[in-house]
Design a protein that fits this description.
The complex is a heterodimer of chains A (148) and B (429). Chain A contains 4 helices and 10 strands, in the order ββββαββαβαβαββ. By secondary structure, chain A is of the alpha/beta class. Chain A has one domain: Glucose Oxidase, domain 1. In chain A, the strands form 2 sheets. Chain A has an 8-stranded mixed sheet with strand order 1-10-9-3-5-7-8-2, with helices on one face. In chain A, helix 2 packs parallel to helix 3 (99-112). Chain A is globular and about 40 Å long. By secondary structure, chain B is an alpha/beta fold. Chain B has 3 domains: 5-185, Aconitase, domain 3, CATH 3.30.499; 188-295, no CATH class; 310-420, Aconitase, domain 3. Chain B has 18 helices and 13 strands. In chain B, the strands form 4 sheets. In chain B, strands 11-10-9-12-13 form a 5-stranded parallel sheet. A 4-stranded parallel sheet of chain B has the order 7-6-5-8. Chain B has a two-stranded antiparallel ribbon with strand order 1-4. In chain B, helix 8 links the parallel strand 5 and strand 6. The chains are: A alpha/beta (148), B alpha/beta (429). Chains A and B meet through helix 1, helix 2 and helix 3 of A and helix 2 and helix 3 of B.
Chain lengths: 148, 429
């Protein structure tokens, strides 16, 4: 099984952390809305439609998904979550980044000086290989090492 | 991205730190999608963020920074509908309290919108392209819109060019008067990846056809054959209304930002099958598939057997023609059933300027009032976001509202019969 993958760095950085995985797209508004409204200290995924992530803690995790989906307010949700200290540590997208996530990570970086490390184009094999709870090492050149 | 001298100076901060952040955001966003340059906008932007949700603190701070630095959009813009309407919709006390917490920043945010370039106090609608509102693009115009139902209408029905942008990118593009060139702004990005063959025996409900297409193609562009035979002899306003509702369903049930309808939509009329990409996929839709889509929608009511208590018609907002049509049909149906008023509390939603125009016809307004049908310019979807409101058994003819809320979807003729107590199997003509 392949343990190393290469993606395109969208927001560069080095990081080692634990991952969450969803084969379905991450609905940003549905996932973060409840925790943001309740001003929680950690974001717990409130998207009932996402069986992989529902009720799991998103804050500080490496989120591995195909893309983000849902309302075009998604970019604002990422920026708001980042400012509130609720954002994931990283987004790893198997597909090309979508407009919501792109706006969100750029807005966070430019307007709140918070870098959410983001890679895209990691491919389907990456998403099929990575499993919840694995430790991933992200390098700024876009390399991902699965450490388990 | 290749930038002009002025754009480079902006990024370097020579026109102020805030404008530097605005252009940097737009350029970095565009670069991720392979944009080679920024191109000028031809018409005003239409923003998706109309709601003062208390959680969006960074947005209000950002808006203040823009305003304090004298920044505003080049052209006056329009924005999505307001989330609440205390005047025309009755909210009980707990609902009012929840709304107060949820949309506590509404007035504050609306003031910010005015300062940053909002057209006027009536500019709150998702159908800014209707003539009563006046944010009307023309074929080939470059835009930077974000509201998904407006994006798909502008691209497909009008033939203008906008990406399905994220919120704030729309605003920043409006401030710069420019947007990154990629995706639907390019000829290549407008090619169809799907050939959809419609083989139904009659014109399917727009909302279910849109849903069927959206669920199949997700975000790719469909080229639809066979729909023209049902639409071609209808008046242009009827065609536009049908495509508005079909597009909104395809954009919300999937993520369609552009469709072509053979012999109907402007680019399909000009180019026909040349719009198909080389490696297009095929899918046919018959009566069985329409029925299958229609029966796949889950019942999200807390009590699945609950009788409907409220009906929303107009997501996206109704055109003036649709508003008149519903008014007449509800009235005629009530006369037929012998009822004096509607059976289920019903709210028709349309843009403030469309409502104003409708109200000029006192006869129509009286008809609506007599039947106790309410008229509002609210966003039914944001209204339903209230967890207390969403516990109500709501019915709608909008597939978008069904998708994002607990509301139950019915076809137009079913809705008409449900709210007027008519024969549930009788079809709308």
């Amino acid at each position: 099984m392949k343990k190393e993958f290469k993606g395109r760095p969208v927001i560069k950085g080095n990081l080692t952390g634990t991952c969450l995985v969803s084969k379905a797209g991450l609905n940003l508004l549905a996932s973060f809305q409840k925790s943001l409204l309740k001003k929680e200290k950690k974001a717990i995924c409130s998207d009932q439609d996402n069986k992989d992530l529902y009720k799991k803690e998103l804050t500080g995790k490496i989120i591995c998904v195909p893309q983000t989906i849902g309302s075009t307010t998604g970019g604002l949700v990422i920026q708001t979550a980042a400012k509130a200290g609720l954002a994931p540590a990283a987004f790893l997208f198997s597909e090309h980044i979508d407009s919501l996530a792109a706006a969100g990570v750029v807005l966070s970086n430019v307007w709140t000086n918070i870098k959410i490390i983001t890679l895209d184009n990691l491919g389907n094999e990456f998403l099929n290989t990575v499993k919840e709870g694995m430790t991933l090492e992200i390098r700024e050149d876009g390399t991902i090492l699965i450490k388990e | 991205m290749e930038l002009t001298k002025e754009e480079r100076e902006m990024i370097e901060g020579k026109h102020g730190k805030t404008l530097a952040k605005v252009i940097r955001t737009v350029v970095e966003y565009g670069t991720l999608f392979g944009a080679k340059r920024l191109i000028p906008l031809d018409k005003p932007v239409h923003l998706v963020t109309s709601f003062g949700v208390s959680i969006l603190k960074p947005v209000y701070n950002m808006m203040n920074e823009l305003i304090e630095n004298g920044l505003h959009t080049v052209l006056p813009f329009t924005v999505d509908p307001r989330p609440l309407d205390h005047k025309n919709i009755h909210y009980n006390l707990p609902e009012r309290l929840v709304f107060k917490i949820m949309y506590g920043k509404q007035k504050y945010y609306e003031k910010q919108l005015m300062k940053i370039g909002l057209k006027d106090d009536n500019a709150f609608t998702c159908t800014c392209y209707h003539k009563e509102i006046g944010n009307i693009p023309e074929k080939g115009d470059i835009l930077a819109w974000a509201e998904s139902s407006a994006v798909v209408y502008a691209n497909s029905v009008i033939g203008a060019r906008t990406n399905r942008n994220s919120a704030i990118i729309d605003l920043f593009s409006g401030i710069l008067g420019k947007t990154p060139e990629f995706g639907f702004l390019t000829n290549e990005g407008r090619k169809a990846k799907w050939l959809i063959e419609l083989k139904t025996t009659e014109l399917p409900p727009a909302q279910v056809l849109g849903s069927t297409i959206g669920l199949k193609v997700i975000e790719e562009v469909p080229y639809i054959k066979g729909l023209d035979k049902f639409l071609k002899d209808r008046p242009q306003d009827d065609i536009n209304d049908y495509l508005k509702d079909m597009g909104a369903a395809s954009a919300s049930n999937g993520a369609v930002g552009l469709f072509h309808v053979e012999n109907i939509t402007p680019e399909a009329v000009d180019e026909g099958e040349k719009l198909l990409s080389r490696d297009f996929k095929m899918y046919s839709i018959d009566d069985a598939k329409i029925k299958q889509t229609r029966s796949s929608y889950p019942n999200m009511y807390k009590n699945p057997e609950a009788n409907p208590r409220l009906c929303f018609i107009g997501c996206p907002h109704l055109s003036l023609q649709q508003l008149n049509k519903w008014t007449n049909e509800i009235s005629e149906a009530l006369q037929k059933t012998g009822r004096r008023k509607i059976k289920i509390k019903t709210i028709l939603t349309a843009a403030p300027d469309v409502v104003r125009k409708f109200k000029e016809n006192k006869h129509q307004l009286m008809k609506l009032k007599k039947n106790l049908v309410r008229l509002s310019s609210v966003c039914p979807l944001m209204n339903m976001n209230n967890p207390l409101f969403s516990k109500k058994a709501v019915i709608t003819n909008s597939n978008k509202l069904r998708m994002y809320s607990t509301a139950k979807y019915y076809d137009d003729h079913e809705i008409l019969n449900l709210i007027t107590g008519g024969d549930k199997d009788e079809k709308r003509i």
